[in-house]
Specification:
Blueprint: E1 3-8, H1 12-22, E2 29-35, H2 41-54, E3 59-63, E4 68-70, E5 73-75, E6 79-85, E7 89-96, H3 101-112, E8 117-124, H4 131-139, E9 146-151, E10 163-165, E11 169-170, E12 173-180, E13 185-191, E14 194-207, E15 210-214, H5 219-233, E16 244-248, E17 251-255, E18 257-260, E19 266-268, E20 277-283, H6 285-301, E21 306-312, H7 313-318, H8 320-333, E22 336-341, E23 344-346, E24 353-355, E25 359-365, H9 383-421, E26 426-430, E27 436-439, H10 441-447, H11 451-454, H12 468-479, E28 484-491, E29 497-509, E30 512-522, H13 524-538, H14 548-565, E31 569-576, H15 579-586, H16 588-605, E32 610-616, E33 619-624, H17 630-645, E34 648-650, E35 653-655, E36 659-666, H18 673-689, E37 695-697, H19 698-717, E38 725-734, E39 740-751, E40 755-757, H20 759-769, H21 772-792, E41 799-803, H22 806-810, H23 814-825, E42 832-836, H24 845-858, E43 861-867, E44 884-887, H25 889-894, H26 900-914, E45 918-921, H27 927-935, E46 940-941, H28 952-961
Parallel strand pairs: 2-3, 8-9, 21-22, 36-37, 39-41, 41-42, 42-43, 43-44, 44-45, 45-46
Antiparallel strand pairs: 1-6, 2-6, 3-10, 4-5, 4-22, 7-12, 8-12, 9-23, 10-11, 13-25, 14-15, 14-20, 15-19, 16-17, 16-20, 18-19, 21-25, 23-24, 26-27, 26-30, 28-29, 29-30, 31-33, 31-36, 32-33, 34-35, 38-39, 38-46, 39-40
Bound molecules: ligand C2E and calcium ion (2 copies).
Length: 970
């Protein structure tokens, strides 16, 4: 059995009495612990002498202390604890500091450590002795010896503190009592509950126990920042309140400051190395209570016979309530003694350690006791402790928040990092002077520079000089807070230039712009593609000229400007005359070559500020924007007409082409693009309808014509009644036999005051007004009657060819009109030929073909007139019931000039023959033409060379002279 007696020392006499009373001097194995408070050396020495006198066999260890524990309460007097053992052997050792503390520890084990040694009770005089190393030395042999104890501490006025045994005393050393014996049961425990608080720091300079720098600053400066002046000035003692928590192998070790060195570095209780991370530790009251309650519950079940606590002064100060109550609970188990220390020693053989803010507990028994039943462990906290708890809670929560925040910052920083590092776009930042201060890997990859070649340099060094002004402007706008986007060509280190789309955004910190972020993407391919698309969408592939869409945009744009500057613009529409025929007979390839050369020629003579566009096929447009007036326009249109007329040569042959021009002027002919273009286009149609190779101005020429038309229409209405119309006859001969084969009726209008009017002028008017039905019917009847008369009086046997306009032909009664004319005149149908133009095919082709078939069924001959000027191709003719094909006179007349017209005439006549049609060449004016036509295989001819269209009397005379055919063979 182990038994303890506790005694508050007053004087020698009463001590003698106490010892006698309890028979303490009877026991051979006696451990005496003396906790002497702040007693000076003389008092301690007196106590030593006294004890040695009355208890010569007792083993004494003692030390100065700051609060002594007796029977569960704290007193300031000297406390003596006597523990008697039945079988356990007690020995003691005082070790003065010499050499390394570790060696002292090794030495201790060597001297006191027996095979049955169960525990060492160790008191150290000062923290700065290297207590941790001492303990490491003790545990080195690997004995499972429990260590408990405490560090004495500085007394007021820097008086030294002492540790002592029976005979020795030192202010620089350790005293140890060893407890050995098989019967001894040890119950030990350490309560040290450190909670991490504040940021994690990295040790950046250290050597052994000397900590030189944390996070690159002197530790004292860091401590001053985080823990304040009071803490720093109270070092090293204050270190036990907030030690460093060193992270080592999944463990957090409390490391204390032992000494502050003059240069601001500190000496630590543990050795540290550079790269170690530390944070601050503080005690968590709740955890402390929890641990103590656990320990007490165990003691209740397995009570010890006696026990000691070496408790931290900081616990007494900061959690006094808890400390007081826990002491009284302990005392309910068995007599308790101990003292308040400045560092607690605890743990077993494997890992004894120096602790702080902790409780080192040692329970001893030599026999087993019954569990204690009537003991309540219920900590009652005073409001003061509650505040402490709340503060602890607050610190804990705040700490958690900070951790979370730091983690979030870390996460978002990682997000940002990966956005920066893994971006395939290059990303950079510059300072306010435009100098690079960060670059992502893609930047280096894109341009082939190393980081060092770029960092610190102005971004302007890497772009073309001509872009500098623009880039600077974007930079300043971005600094103003406006996001900037722009394209920029940038050369790589190797000189390869690419196009980049750059985005600049300001970097703002605390509402202030501190730099610019730039993000760039290579858009070379996209830009090239866009260019191609634009080219395709806006430009004509063959001539590279703006197409219809682009041209409209150009006109739009210039109208906006002209509006502001009150200027005139002119739009010209150009259309090649007879171009369709060139395409059909010579092939599209030749057509394309001609179009290309034509566009170049026109482009060549256009003045500055003029735009040429290709509207469609052989239709071009010109926009004149500079010095636009009547004179300049007519000068330019004249130039165009002339340059187009110059011969084209292809494969050694020459071609002639002409063009029709329609002109519209802004603003009088249209204030909007659409109006202006439409009007210029209708002017072009007028120009075409007037035979081509000329220019028509929208309003000027057209209006004149309109007034004239209105007037003419009124007169034309009465022309039939007034017998102002008459027919002129033009003979058609067989080229081979030179005999008369037919004659064409050509209408004439003899106006009393205007004179003879050409059908070219009034027929279109008659068509527009619908008068053509009456007029056409009249011509038909008159022509049939006349031929019947000639046949009847044997004046000739030939066919009569009557022109039928499209509108007339399409009239539902037309077939009827023809039948009527034949009936009235009695002319056999085969003597009548109807001349149709290609335009009749433009409307409802199937109905037209049906009508033609009905006419052919009557026996009437059908001719296609002015062939080659329209839009039909030769190939469709075979579907029509045609007998005669009349080559337009323009081909015949151009033939002499080695033009493509020879080829055209040749192919028309060949084709006509293949389709079993007679081919008539119109407008034959020279014997040469006639000769050529003969060679080309043309059947019939008509033209001034033979006879001009003649009034009736003249025709009668002609007929008398003419060699007449007896058989109508067409
Ligand atoms: P078209 O049917 O092509 O008529 C031939 C035109 O060529 C006539 O013009 C004729 O005078 C002219 N001509 C004949 N030989 C020569 C020549 O060697 N050299 C030149 N330079 N010209 C020649 P015209 O009489 O002025 O008639 C013009 C057009 O008016 C006709 O062209 C025809 O389309 C139309 N036309 C005439 N009479 C009628 C008619 O009764 N009804 C309809 N619907 N249209 C008619
Ligand atoms: Ca005709
Ligand atoms: Ca004709």
């Amino acid at each position: 059995m182990v038994k303890s007696f506790q005694y508050i020392y007053n004087d020698e006499h009463s001590l003698n009495q106490f010892i006698q009373e309890h028979g303490i001097d009877q026991y051979p194995s006696l451990l005496i612990q003396a906790f002497v408070g702040d007693s000076p050396l003389a008092v301690i020495k007196g106590l030593q002498r006294h004890i040695n006198r009355i208890l010569p066999r007792g083993t004494l260890i003692g030390c100065n202390s700051n609060g002594q524990v007796i029977g569960g309460s704290i007193v300031s007097e000297i406390v003596l604890s006597f523990t008697i053992f039945e079988v356990t052997v007690i020995e003691s050792l005082l070790q003065e500091r010499s050499g390394s503390s570790k060696q002292l520890g090794q030495q201790l084990t060597g001297v006191l450590g027996q095979s049955d040694t169960k525990a060492f009770i160790v008191f150290a005089s000062h923290l700065h002795l290297g207590v941790q190393e001492f303990l490491e030395g003790v545990s080195e042999r690997g004995d499972e010896i429990v260590i408990a104890g405490g560090v004495s501490s500085d007394l007021p006025d820097k008086r030294p503190t002492y540790v002592f045994t029976n005979d020795e005393i030192t202010s620089e050393g350790f005293v140890t009592a060893s407890l050995s014996g098989e019967e001894l049961k040890i119950h030990s425990h350490s309560i040290e509950e450190w909670q991490e608080v504040g940021p994690v720091f990295t040790i950046t300079k250290a050597k052994g126990n000397i900590l030189g720098e944390i996070n690159h600053v002197k530790p004292i400066r860091l401590l001053d920042t985080y823990l304040g002046e009071r803490f720093v000035s109270a070092l090293p003692d204050s270190s036990i309140e907030f030690p460093f928590l060193l992270r080592r192998e999944n463990e957090k070790v409390a490391v204390y400051i032992m000494n502050v060195l003059p240069d601001g570095s500190v000496e630590l209780s543990h050795g540290v190395t550079e790269g170690d991370t530390v944070s601050f530790g503080f005690v968590d009251v709740r955890d402390s209570i929890r641990s103590t309650t656990k320990l007490l519950s165990r003691l209740k079940r397995h009570p010890v016979e006696t026990h000691f606590v070496y408790n931290c002064v900081a616990r007494r100060r900061y959690i006094r309530d808890v400390t007081n109550q826990e002491l009284s609970f302990f005392n309910q188990v068995s007599p308790l003694t101990g003292f308040f220390s400045y560092g607690e020693l605890g743990g077993t053989g494997g890992k004894p350690k120096l602790m702080a803010h902790s409780l080192s507990y040692l329970g001893l028994s030599e026999s087993v006791r019954e569990p204690i039943r009537d003991m309540k462990i219920d900590f009652q906290l005073t409001p003061e402790a509650d505040v402490m708890m709340s503060l602890t809670h607050l610190i804990n929560t705040a700490e958690k928040d900070i951790k979370e925040l730091t983690q979030n910052i870390q996460i978002s920083e990682e997000y940002y990092r990966s956005l920066f590092d893994n971006n395939t776009d290059f990303v950079y930042s510059t300072d306010l002077n435009g100098r690079f201060n960060s670059l992502n890997p893609s930047f280096m990859k894109t341009f082939g520079y190393t980081r060092e070649e770029i960092l610190g340099k102005s971004a302007l060094n890497f772009i073309r000089e001509e872009d500098a002004v623009r880039v600077r402007r974007h930079f300043y706008r971005a600094m103003d807070g406006r996001e900037q986007y722009y394209d920029l060509p940038i050369a790589s280190k190797k000189g390869e230039v690419n196009f980049f789309q750059i985005k600049n955004i300001p970097i703002t910190v605390d509402g202030k712009c501190v730099g610019i972020f730039g993000i760039g993407r290579n858009v070379t391919k996209e830009r090239q593609f866009e260019k191609k698309i634009t080219q395709l969408a806006y430009y004509d592939g063959e001539t590279d000229l703006p197409n219809k869409m682009k041209f409209r945009e150009i006109v739009d744009e210039h109208i906006q400007r002209a509006k502001k500057k009150k200027r005139q613009l002119a739009v010209l529409f150009l259309d090649m005359d007879r171009f369709k025929m060139i395409n059909d007979t010579l092939g599209h390839f030749v057509g394309d070559v001609i179009i290309k050369e034509l566009s170049q020629r026109i482009q060549g003579i256009l003045p500055k500020g003029a735009y040429l566009g290709r509207f469609s096929g052989d239709k071009f447009t010109v926009l004149l924007t500079k010095e636009v007036n009547g004179t300049t326009i007519s000068g330019i249109t004249q130039d165009i007409l002339e340059t187009v007329q110059a011969p084209f040569s292809y494969q050694g042959k020459e071609f002639y082409i002409s063009v029709s021009i329609g002109a519209g002027i802004y603003p009088q002919d249209g204030e909007e693009t659409a109006d202006l273009l439409r009007n210029a286009d209708s002017a072009l149609n007028w120009a075409k309808s007037k035979g081509g190779n000329n220019t028509v101005y929208f309003s000027r020429d057209m209006e004149e014509e309109i007034t004239r038309k209105v007037e003419m229409e009124a007169h034309l209405r009465r022309a039939i009644e007034k017998q102002e119309l008459f027919i002129a006859f033009q003979p058609i001969i067989n080229i081979q036999s030179q005999s008369l084969i037919g004659c064409e009726s050509l209408l004439r209008w003899q106006h009393p005051s205007w004179g003879l009017i050409s059908p070219g002028e009034f027929i279109p008017l008659a068509e527009e007004t619908g008068l053509i039905h009456d007029i056409g019917k009249w011509v038909l009847v008159e022509s049939c009657i006349q031929l019947k008369e000639w046949i009847d009086r044997d004046a000739g046997k030939f066919y009569i060819s009557v022109n039928v306009s499209a509108r007339q032909f399409q009239h539902p009664t037309f077939l009827n009109d023809v039948e009527e004319a034949l009936a009235i005149s009695g002319l056999p149908a085969e003597y009548l030929c109807l001349e149709l133009t290609e335009t009749i095919m433009l409307h409802d082709a199937s109905r037209t073909i049906d009508a033609m078939k009905s006419l052919a069924d009557l026996g009437v001959k059908l001719a296609i007139d002015d062939f080659g000027t329209g839009y039909s191709s030769l190939s469709y003719l075979k579907h029509l019931p045609l007998h005669i094909l009349k080559i337009d006179r323009s081909f015949v007349q151009n033939m002499s000039d080695h033009t493509p017209d020879v080829a055209i005439v040749q192919s028309i006549s060949t084709m006509g023959k293949g389709l079993n049609m007679k081919v008539v060449a119109e407008g034959v004016e020279t014997p040469g033409q006639l000769e050529l036509l003969k060679q080309l295989g043309c059947d019939f001819a008509q033209g001034f060379l033979i006879e001009r269209p003649m009034p009736l009397e003249k025709m009668n005379t002609f007929l008398t002279k003419m060699h007449l055919v007896t058989n109508l063979d067409i």
